[in-house]
Design a protein that fits this description.
2 copies of one chain form a homodimer. Chain A is an alpha+beta fold and 146 residues long. The first copy, chain A, has 3 helices and 7 strands; from the N terminus they run E-H-H-E-E-E-E-E-E-H. Chain A has a 7-stranded antiparallel beta sheet. In chain A, a hairpin with a 6-residue loop joins strand 3 and strand 4. The radius of gyration of chain A is 14 Å and the shape is globular. The two termini of chain A are 25 Å apart. The model of chain A has no long low-confidence stretch (mean pLDDT 97). At the A-B interface, strand 1, strand 7 and helix 3 of A face strand 1, strand 7 and helix 3 of B.
């Protein structure tokens, strides 16, 4: 088992960060504008990225003030069965978001997705700090893969 | 052993990417402007990031057209002894840069450095694609840690 791991500090209160992870409008503001479903615990959320084969289905496993856990139930083979966590910690000056995604193997696509998750988490950060989020299709292209 | 892993595609020929990794001017254009030393095989390069305790010393283990290998010989405890690799592959439309850094343990600082390496590698990419690199001290701040 391998893990993608990121950490960003966001100058916004923890509930505001949580809203970015637990509402369709919130998710649309940083990951992809093409999102649908139910982001509450037990729900399923569909994220799409243009081409018909570019989608991710996440089952919402847990939501607390400390963060969110998803289980990937559809999308790229390498993603399905993986767990995605967003841990939130309120510090005096910022909310720290720690992110993980589990992978079976460190394939090239994992390298790519690691870099791309960083781009999207910084998009989330920007969207809460007076800047603009850059969800798909306005996301930064990091290679010919996306 | 844990690994940080990134992948970016750069619309520039492989020798141009290699120059960014093997010359002081190249390194100064994307990682930190405060760089000194000898970036040739067997040499040692010092990278500094402002505060006196923020530095990294890298020993250059290998340089070929396929990439660069460094061994961290000074800097944060968590970095020292770790190996950093930049693998370069020339594809028809882009040069693919795959990056790794080995860590003993997945501490919070590893989460942070993973996200920050992505920022710097995208700085490298931008510096070769007609944009501007954002080396320290112009680097994007991802949290109160830097």
């Amino acid at each position: 088992m391998e893990n993608i791991r990121h950490r960003v500090g966001i100058r916004a209160p923890r509930p505001a960060v949580l809203t970015k992870l637990t509402t369709l409008d919130g998710l649309a503001s940083w990951w992809t504008t093409d999102v649908a479903g139910d982001p509450e615990p037990g729900g399923k959320v569909e994220f799409r990225f243009g081409r018909p084969d570019r989608y991710v289905f996440m089952e919402v496993v847990d939501v607390t003030e400390d963060g969110v856990v998803w289980n990937c139930v559809g999308g790229p083979d390498e993603w399905v069965g993986g767990v995605v966590t967003f841990d939130l910690e309120q510090l005096p000056d910022e909310t720290v978001l720690k992110f993980t995604q589990s992978w079976r193997d460190p394939v090239d696509f994992m390298f790519h997705c690691n870099t791309k998750w960083g781009v999207f988490l910084l998009s989330l950060k920007a969207s809460l700090e007076g800047g603009e989020g850059t969800p798909y299709p306005r996301d930064l292209q990091i290679s010919s893969w996306s």
